[in-house]
Structures are given as structure tokens and as C-alpha cells.
Amino acid sequence: MPTGGVHPMSHRDILTYEEIYTIAQVAAELGINKIRLTGGEPLVRLGLPELIQMLAHIGGVDDIALTTNGTLLARYAAELKEAGLRRVNISLDTLKQDKYEFITRHNQLSEVLEGIEAARSIGLNPVKINVVVMAGINDDELLDFTTKTMDEEWHVRFIELMPFAGEDTTAPQLIPVSEMRRRIELLGKLEPCLPSAGNGPAKYFRFPGAKGTVGFITPVSEHFCFQCNRLRLTSDGRLRLCLLAEDEVDLKHPLRNGVSSAGLKQLIQEAVARKPRRHHLAEGYIPKDRPMTQVGG
Question: For 261, left (φ over 0), alpha (ψ -120 to 50), or beta?
Fold first, then answer.
């Protein structure tokens, strides 16, 4: 989190649940069949299970997932699953209390660990743990996280750091996945395996006999833009066409001005047509409009 926190948005500036539902329903009619709720932190918004229940009743949507920091997950996990949530990803960059407080600006590591166990116990599986690896901050914990895939059936995904303007994290902290693998394979040989659920960009492996998995996501060193099949709807009602580009299409104002279902479909189709072939991190371009804490994982 930024040291100064995040700038709050007025409720009138963000989409209502009914507006999110309308956009999701139209998107489903165009062939989108998977929805992920992310953030910021989605569980701080009141009544999130109600939104999940609404989305679960959309024809054609066969998977609803959630990305969360996990601090409120133990409290809501059962209610979320009953509403229709299928899977959960938890962002957790360290297992050490002092580092956790430095990275997140709060001290709720124990609540996150409780949330992981709560999600597993009620069947929100596979529970995936997202770890953004940063040189000099948490790269010394690669083996600690990996060991949990063998001893505790964790599904850990190591993610390369993506630079965003105005954040404390900078390019020199990037550790490429090739270096992560070199260190992790000190524990043994990783064997390729298929994901148990989802169709995201991670490549999965496991150690012989391990029930958990190790995943790697390489947005910087080996970008996967050519197979990207995602659109991101921001809380203030814009379709962001690429996580690492600033181009967005406004859906909120047309929606509030009475756009028809056909008109909304046309806007979404035009957005897909504008989706870039790749990001431009290699050329030194860094998005400057929204920090990662706003656009989510």
C-alpha cells in the first residue's frame, strides 16, 4: 500500500451493484463466462455476497472468483460460498509479521492465515496464494512459501513485480521467474502440471508427491499478452483494456444516460477491438493513471 493510503471515492462515483449486474449480464450475452471480483479490497464493500448472488444467476456465467487480501475472509467465507462464489485467490507477499506490516501498512497477518484455512475448510478450492516477489524485501521467503505446497497443500503463485508510476516498488526490485525457479529447485525438481481450475496466465508445477502446486506468472520477462482474454471493469465504471495501459472505455455515463442493451454491447465490442496486442514495459512505458492498489490483481 502507498504510505499515504488511498484517495477515497464518493459512492455516487462508483457503480451500484445493479449497474455491475447489468454490465455483467450484457457481457455474458457476448460470450464472457467467468467473473472475478477484485479491488482494492472487495470485502470492505458492504453486501458483497448480495452482488455474488446476483452474478451467479446470470445465464452463461459458470465461474465466479474473488481476489482478496484475506483479512476479512474468515468472517465472510461461508456466506460468500453460499451466495455462489466458487474460488478465491489471496494476496500474501510474506509470512513474517514485520514485513507484512511494512508491505500492507497494517498488522492483520494472523487474520489472513485464518482466512486461508476458512476458505479451504468450506471448499472454496483451490485456494490460491498470490506472492509478488520483490528483491530485498521478500525474495528470501521463496523456499518458505514453496515448502507449504509440500507440507500444507498450499497452491502458491509467484508473480513478477509489475512497475506502476507513483509506487514505492521500482524496477530494480524485479526478480524474473527464471531466477525464482533456480532458487526454488534447490528443494528438488519441479514437474509440470495442469491447473485444477481457472484459465489464467500462470504455468503450474509441483514437487513429486506434493498435493499443492507452484505457479509462476511472468508479466514482465515473458509477457503473455498474445493469449490475454480479459477485460477489467473498474469500480468507477470504465473498461480497462490492459492492466498495464491507460486506455479505458467509459460505461458508467452511457449506462446512467439510458443506453440500451444493444448500445452497451456495442461499447464492449468496440473496447475489445481496441485491446492492445501487448504492453510496453520493455520500452520503459509505465502506467501513470491508477496505482496497482486501485486496479487490483
Answer: alpha
Residue 22 CA to residue 126 CA, distance in Å, equals 29
Distances (CA, A) of 212 to 149, 152, 288: 4, 7, 37
- What is the pTM assigned to this prediction? 0.88
What letter would DSSP give residue 134?
B
Exposure on the CB side of residue 197, measured as CA atoms within 13 A: 15
Q: Are strands 213-217 and 155-160 parallel, antiparallel or unpaired?
A: parallel
Residues 62-73 have pLDDT tens digits of 999 999 999 999
Q: Starting at the edge strand that comes first in sequence, how are the strands of the sheet with 238-240 ordered?
A: 232-233, 238-240, 248-250
pLDDT digits (tens, 9 = 90+) for 157-200: 999 887 654 444 444 488 999 999 999 999 999 999 987 666 67
SS3 (DSSP) at 25? helix
Neighbouring C-alpha atoms within 13 Å toward the C-beta of 16: 7
Concatenate the DSSP letters of all residues of 96-110 into one string: SHHHHHHHHSS--HH
